[in-house]
Amino acid sequence: MYRSSVANILTLTVLLVVMPSLPVACAETFPGNQTVLKSASELDYPPFALVQPDGTAGGFSVDLLKAATEAVGLSVTFKVGPWNDLKRELAERTLDVLPLVSYSEERDKVYDFTTAYLRMNGTVFVKEGNAEIKNLADLQNKEVLVMQGDTAHEYALRENLSDTIIAKASYEEAFKLLASGKHDAIVVQQIAGLQIIKKLHITNVVPVEQKNISSLKPMALKLEGFEQKFCFAVPEGNKQLLAQLNEGLAIISLNGTYNLLYEKWFAPILPKPQVTFGELVKQTLSILVPLLLFLMIFGLWYLKRLVARRTQYLQLEIHQRKQAEKELQESHDLLAHLARLVPGVVYQYRLYPDGRSAFPYASPGMYNIYEVTPEEVREDATPVFGRLHPDDFDNVASSIQESARTLATFYCEFRVNLPRQGLRWRWSQAQPERMPDGGTLWHGIISDITERKQAEEEKKTLQAHLQQAQKMEAIGTLAGGIAHDFNNILGAILGYAELAQEDSPPGSDIRADVDQVVRATHRAKELVKQILAFSRQAEAEHIPLQPALIVKEAVKMLRASLPTTIDLRQDIDAQTGLVLADPTQIHQVLVNLCTNAFHAMEETGGILTISLKSTFLTREDLSCEQWVQPGAFVQLSIADTGPGIAPEIQKKMFDPYFTTKEVGKGTGMGLAIIHGIVKSYKGFVTCLSGPDNGTVFHVYLPVIGEPVLLEVESPPSEPAQLGNEHILFIDDEDILAEMGKVMLERLGYRVTVRKNSLEALNTFLNQPERYDLVITDQTMPGMTGIDLARRMLQIRPGMPIILCTGYSSLISEDKAKSLGIKGFAMKPLAKKDIAAIIRKVLDEVR
């Protein structure tokens, strides 16, 4: 604490020395009256500079520059990029200012620097077990990694630490190389290196033995290793901006903003400063000596004054005493009146040395709060503690004991079970004092906070609903974007596969392989339909299905997403009976349960087992599920080898929004949704678990029929319908445009292809009667397919147009036809399907 105080004093002293010159410097005109500065932050230097999940810049230096510029009426924008590129852009004046630039004599020739706001020491990191390297002097003849353009790089070259200096674009890359056994050491700032190791979860790289620095603030103390002083840097000669930035640093240092940002970013990671016994004694004496001196002088003065006053006013003592007794009684009456007006209880609580407790005083509100009278608890507090909720008893008792031990303010929220009012929330705060007999007396208040607690719960529920709605909306948007791009890819695969299918000799190996590609493409097409159905949250479509197919598809997806520390095993009976369900919901049930199992084993690893089998349940088996009818069931089981679920959690785990996960890792709706889905199918879910015994969830779905072999139907082999009309085909995807032209020409049509909607409109405008049909994609840059169709219909009313889309939330088949569009098709389209639509549209307009 003492060192921290000295550091703060030094920092303020430096800034106060600089500040007198700031008004003159800032009086200059800033070029172009610019108020928004362009800055940047490097990719990999936590916690000084980092890239946040949304791609924006973050970190201590970014926040500090924002605060400093805001303090002087400026603002700043950031981009992120490699450190070497950012330094070059600052030198070329593409950037106005750059944070986290270490001062050196070489750099001072290119940039101007503000007062230093941080200083750090560098150290050497080696692979664990490397006893050859203990300090910088041991790096000779070693392969030393640094970041390109970093001060550590400059230092290594300047000091000739080694003949083999290897520069990398980022320290993350350097640490990964060292951890994999490549090269000998890394030279990097101590705190940055420790943070990168933590971020990358590297366990086999350690710093050489060196004292940990507990403060990064500017100080005069000598650091181990090489030292860096970090500043804001501006292009050489920009004195006005330099003065403004120095002024901003001074302001935020004086108003406390600097310390707030420093504590936010460094307090969680820096070791606490150790205060020596000598420093502690020095600090204590610096406080006690002036205080004792003051008390001594004040005591002598007060004693002398008291003696004089008592000597002078001795005859009035009796009158004053009576007056005091009168005022005391009035005060007592006033306090009693106020206590009756307080919406709660004003009380004294006494804890005796032998463990007994009582309420020597309690205002009349005691009855409304505990439904006991003040007289009932004046000698014994047992009736009050008997009203406490069992789950809160230990918390209240421990809080009382801690307050009695430390004489800290007692503060607690708890529940009570009252005979008349039922379950209610209470809040109490009291100040303790030690009694002569060794007991403790509290003076405090108790209030009813039930309505506030209920409002908080309602607010949490509403927030959870809102978060769930936002997540579902985001899923819908994401699924739509994926569906559009994926359907375009599937369209190209399906189209060219069918062309290859036509060109392959029947019965050949090539023809068989291409047939499998076409069949797989149709399966992928159906999968995209399921994703879109889930994203739209459409009404569940209950159809007879065989669960084994859905489970196998889900297992393929899970296998690719699980880490190698989790062993995925499966035991799936492909011949279980049929169930009446929605395929998307069954997929959702399986994925949710597997995700929970993965989270249970995320840190330790383990075995995830998925099994599917048929079973028969009797009425005795369903004793706990009386509403379920006995009979044949399909049993889906998800088992993990995680830590298990405690019995008290199992009782509540199917409740909506109940979760044991950290904030940001779940809403608590997963098991509640699973329970609702399975129950709607007249099935049920059970859980078997115990501490350190893993967990297994069993999902039981009633069987409605015998198993059948379900396969995706192969495309019909009927020949596609042909024609000879002229078609204008428009698609901005090159591969789809070329594939569409070849496919249509093989169907006998004459085809003109355009890959841009505006170009297509100009082509049509020049010769609108030349074309018999227009086929256009919906999603294109410049002009959408629906807008293009409107313009073409204005030029030539009744023009046959077919609109194709992989996915669009803006257009549907009904809307397209209401605008005069004759045909609507969802990508990907098989050759026979597009041929049929073309003939249908052309035959209708004849």
User: Which structural class is indicated by helix and strand composition?
Assistant: alpha/beta
Span of the ends, CA to CA: 92 Å
Roughly what percent helix? 40-55%
For the secondary structure, the number of strands is 30
Strand percentage lies at 15-25%
- Which spans of ≥5 residues are poorly predicted at pLDDT below 50? 1-32, 663-669, 708-716
- Count every helix, treating DSSP H or I runs of 4 or more residues as helices: 26
- Report the major sheet: 8 strands, mixed
Q: What gyration radius follows from the Cα positions, in whole Å?
A: 39 Å
Mean pLDDT: 82
The dominant shape is: extended
Please tell me about this protein's structure:
This protein is α/β, with parallel strands linked by helices. It has 26 helices and 30 strands. The N and C termini lie far apart (92 Å). 30% of the residues are buried. The N terminus is likely disordered.
List the helices and strands and how they pair.
Blueprint: H1 2-18, H2 22-26, E1 36-42, E2 44-45, E3 49-51, E4 57-58, H3 60-71, E5 75-81, H4 83-91, E6 98-102, H5 105-108, E7 111-113, E8 118-127, E9 143-147, H6 151-158, E10 164-168, H7 171-179, E11 185-189, H8 190-200, E12 205-207, E13 227-235, H9 239-254, H10 257-266, H11 277-312, H12 317-341, E14 344-351, E15 357-362, H13 366-370, H14 382-386, H15 390-406, E16 410-418, E17 422-434, E18 440-448, H16 450-503, H17 509-535, E19 543-545, H18 547-561, E20 566-572, E21 579-581, H19 583-600, E22 606-617, E23 631-640, H20 647-650, H21 670-680, E24 684-689, E25 695-702, E26 726-730, H22 734-746, E27 750-754, H23 757-766, E28 773-777, H24 785-795, E29 801-805, H25 813-818, E30 823-826, H26 831-844
Helix pairs in contact: 1-9, 3-9, 3-10, 7-8, 16-17, 16-22, 18-19, 19-21, 23-24
